[in-house]
Amino acid sequence: MASPAHDPGPALDKDGVRLTVDDAIATVTLTNPAKRNAQSPALWRALTEAGRLLPGSVRVVVLRAEGKSFSAGLDRQAFTPEGFDGEPSFIDLAQGGDAELDATITEYQEAFTWWRRSDILSIAAVQGHAIGAGFQLALACDLRVVADDVQFAMRETSLGLVPDLTGTHPLVSLVGYARALEICATGRFVMAEEAVNTGLANLAVPADQLDGAVHDLASAVLAAPRDAVIETKALLQGAVGRDYEAQRAAERAAQGRRLRDLAGLGE
Q1: Which of 26, 170, 209, 263 is packed most tightly, with the most Cβ within 10 A?
Q2: Residues 250, 252: Cα–Cα separation, whole Å
Q3: In a 3-state reduction of DSSP, which class is residue 30?
Q4: Looking at residue 151, what DSSP letter applies?
Q5: Cα 224 vs. chain centroid, distance in angstroms?
């Protein structure tokens, strides 16, 4: 009788984050449903570590969350004078120098930046509440598939803060300046239908079909040659910052690389 396949277990499992790798697909799961996957600096460091631990075989990274909510945003403990154990409170940060504050926020942002790396394609599977930092974490990914019960909201402004976890750039790119400003300034909920209609989400499905829809999307991405996907992603990412002629030139250069590779003439 054949021996059962060896399951190496998660590559990372700490501070509300679990990373598992299955050949070309990695899954990052938020694992604190009791607190609706509220976020903290420890969770952000774990997310950053998950990105650094990805093996080279990974082509698609799925971000998902246990429980009824994707993430209710920043853990409210951050707003208490005590803050989190071993972490500077918001009051401490406010009283520090500009350089220290900038360095701390830069560290926090690292948890949100690696999802758009050119060598991977990231997909957020979002159900229930995705508020504040939760909304920005979903925005950090390349694509978003949502359950029909999803509720996005950017609540930072109502707290006297601004969205600072890299969410403003993708939000404006997806829905436009005026709608992005209105969403942020009012803190209102964006539901599934609006999310799809405005380009905020690629697809909305019933909650019990969310995992299946994400798997189907990941499989479709994996069906294309890896280098072609990487080149196409880089080409599209750069389009916003280029004029028409510069984008034409970028297309020619990218296609030249692909043709040489296909002909066995690449470097």
Answers
A1: 26
A2: 5
A3: strand
A4: E
A5: 22
| 84 in Cβ contact with 41 (< 8 Å) | yes
Q: What element of type H or E holds 62?
A: strand 60-65
- Rounded to an integer, what distance in angstroms lies between the CA atom of residue 20 and that of residue 12? 7
Angle 144-75-172 (CA atoms, 0-180°, nearest 5)? 35
Using alpha carbons, list the distances in angstroms from residue 251 to 85, 96, 258: 50, 46, 11
**Strands 17-22 vs 143-147: parallel, antiparallel or unpaired:** unpaired
Rounded distance, CA 149 to CA 195, Å? 11
CA atoms within 13 Å, Cβ hemisphere of 102 = 3
Distance CA 15, CA 54 (A): 18
**Tokens 């853990």 — which residue?**
75
Give the predicted TM-score (pTM) of the model. Answer: 0.93
Which tens digit of pLDDT belongs to each residue from 215-249?
Answer: 999 999 999 999 999 999 999 999 989 999 999 99
Report which residue type is found at 73.
G
Residue 266 has pLDDT above 70, yes or no: no
Residue with token string 């509440």: 129
Q: Check if the beta carbon of residue 32 is closer than 8 Å to that of residue 38.
A: yes
CB 230 within 8 A of CB 58: no
Q: What are phi and psi of 219, to 5 degrees?
A: -65, -40
Q: For residues 10 and 19, what is the distance between their CA atoms, to the nearest angstrom?
A: 6
Return the SS3 of 250: helix
Provide mean pLDDT across the span 92-121: 92
